[in-house]
Amino acid sequence: QSVLTQPPSVSAAPGQKVTLSCSGSSSNIGKNSVSWYQQLPGTAPKLLIYDNDKRPSGIPDRFSGSKSGTSATLGITGLQTGDEADYYCEAWDSSLRVGLFGGGTKLTVL
Amino acid sequence: QVQLVESGGGVAQPGRSLRLSCAASGFTFSSYVMHWVRQAPGKGLEWVAVISYDGGDKHYADSVKGRFTISRDNSKNTVFLQMNSLRDEDTAMYYCAKQNSPPLSGLDYWGQGTLVTVSS
Predict the structure, then answer these.
(1) Of B9, B14, B21, the residue nearest B118 (C-alpha)
(2) Cis omega (within 30 of 0) on the bond before B102?
(3) A window 43-82, beta carbon within 8 A of B
(4) Which residues contact A99 (CB under 8 A, 6 or more apart)?
């Protein structure tokens, strides 16, 4: 059971918008920035969002991030079949002094 | 361009040791924090360990504390993960990853991973 909680799966139709949630606590998300990663089948994870809401160069603006209190959200608009992947949130825990990943959300684009 | 190449994975019996290496290129290695992250077959990502830019500060997941040691050689642009007293549950793909700048801003580059299988 992960300290950062994500729904196991979400699904939506092509072209639609989806939001993925990540819930933590005051010592991790509540205190530090959140990052989001996309992992396509058989590949290494890729950084999508850092510092809660910033996109690395090359990441389309269809991907957005936000944080409020001890929760964070990844938003994806204009869903494409190529967005089908596992999505993970991540944050540092200042009390435990460890990195934390959420359990991951599998996105299905129907 | 930034490249991270892991090596050293393989099959090991429970209780034995393995040493993973991650060779970095394309950036000033000695200026960046480095991490190891693993993924058991069919499971999610699990953070394993982190080492500061100069090797002076290290932190570990509880699941590996006391058994695994992270280290780095800045003269060789390489980060290591010494894994002792291996257990079945250590079976996973092991990724090294570069910390983004500023600190705690995500892991911006990942290697392709090296597979560790612990089995008798």
Answers:
(1) B14
(2) yes
(3) 44-47, 49-51, 54, 56
(4) A90, A91, A92, A93, B35, B37, B47, B50, B59, B61
User: Average of pLDDT values for B47-52?
Assistant: 97
Residue that has been written with the tokens 């394993």 in this structure: B48
* pLDDT score for B31: 95
Q: For residue A110, count other CB atoms closer than 10 A to its CB.
A: 10
**pLDDT band of B32, cuts 50, 70, 90:** very high
| Cross-chain CB nearest to A51 (options B37, B105, B112) | B105
Alpha-carbon gap: A48 to the closest alpha carbon of chain B (Å): 9
In the predicted model, what is the mean pLDDT of chain B? 97
Average pLDDT over residues B24-50: 97
